[in-house]
């Protein structure tokens, strides 16, 4: 599918979605002629519908269209149609309606596409009759390409009418265009209304403030004093340990001197005794 045509189909389907409340999967009524045409050209009708409407399609066929296919004795086309969901048309099977009249009676309910059907048909007469009904997407085969018809005049008028009603409903609403009593009183008093939105700058673009030294409280000061006292105690302990070590060294020196004197005295006595 060409890009230009795809954009046009997308825009057209948005009208059916938003204005006429279509929903996925889109219910698509197919007639006997388009089934025969797709089978003849070996065209996958389900994939073609999905590609054309650019969404999921749900192919459906009526009993009258099935009876028209049975008369052709084209068994492959009949088997293909049997894979589609059957749509009840409430017509007599023994005396079925023509596919054109059957599909028109199912789609056109009091001049409206009540059940929101997409119609895929090769019948020019059926497409011409359904163009009068607003909100009916029409799909057909143009040789080997599946094509969607442009929106009909009835569809365009229906879309414009729905938009105008929405606008008029907004203008005619009593709440729109009038202030509440509280707002009127505030205006009379001369109070300014608060503006909505962010008043502060972006926190990511603002530099972080440097932490200032706060004055310490009494409890924190006491804790600091306690820590200092403990620090003095540790120093005094170190000094006491050093003094004890010095004292031990002095005692050791004195003991060595005493022992040396005693040994000298003993030696001198021994020499004197030998002389005697």
UniProtKB/TrEMBL annotation:
Keyword Transmembrane helix: no
GO cellular component, one term: small-subunit processome
Ranges of biased composition (kind: Basic residues): 225-236
Highest rank taxon of the organism: Eukaryota
UTP23 sensor motif region domain location: 192-211
Membrane-crossing residue ranges in chain numbering: none
GO biological process: rRNA processing
Sorted UniProt keywords: Nucleus, Ribosome biogenesis, rRNA processing
Matches recorded under Pfam families: Fcf1, UTP23_sensor
Location(s), subcellular: Nucleus, Nucleolus
Record-given protein name: U three protein 23
């Amino acid at each position: 599918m060409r890009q230009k045509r795809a954009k046009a189909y997308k825009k057209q389907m948005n009208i059916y979605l938003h204005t006429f409340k279509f929903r996925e999967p889109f219910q698509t009524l197919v007639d006997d002629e388009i089934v025969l045409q797709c089978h003849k050209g070996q065209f996958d009708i389900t994939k073609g519908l999905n590609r054309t409407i650019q969404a999921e399609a749900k192919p459906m066929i009526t009993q009258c269209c099935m009876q028209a296919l049975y008369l052709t004795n084209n068994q492959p086309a009949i088997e293909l149609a049997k894979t589609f969901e059957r749509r009840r048309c409430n017509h007599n099977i023994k005396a079925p309606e023509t596919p054109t009249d059957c599909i028109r009676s199912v789609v056109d309910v009091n001049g409206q596409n009540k059940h929101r059907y997409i119609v895929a048909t090769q019948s020019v007469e059926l497409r011409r009759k359904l163009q009068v009904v607003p909100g009916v997407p029409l799909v057909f085969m143009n040789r080997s390409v599946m094509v969607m018809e442009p929106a009909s005049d009835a569809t365009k008028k229906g879309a414009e009418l729905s938009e105008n009603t929405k606008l008029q409903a907004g203008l005619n609403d009593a709440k729109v265009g009038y202030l509440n009593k509280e707002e009127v009183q505030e205006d009379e008093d001369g109070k300014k209304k608060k503006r909505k939105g962010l008043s502060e700058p972006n926190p990511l673009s603002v530099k972080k403030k440097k932490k200032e030294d706060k004055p310490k409280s009494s409890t924190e000061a006491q804790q600091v004093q306690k820590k200092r006292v403990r620090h003095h105690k540790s120093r005094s302990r170190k000094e006491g340990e050093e003094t004890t070590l010095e004292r031990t060294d002095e005692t050791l020196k004195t003991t060595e001197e005493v022992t040396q004197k005693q040994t000298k005295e003993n030696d001198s006595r021994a020499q004197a005794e030998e002389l005697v």
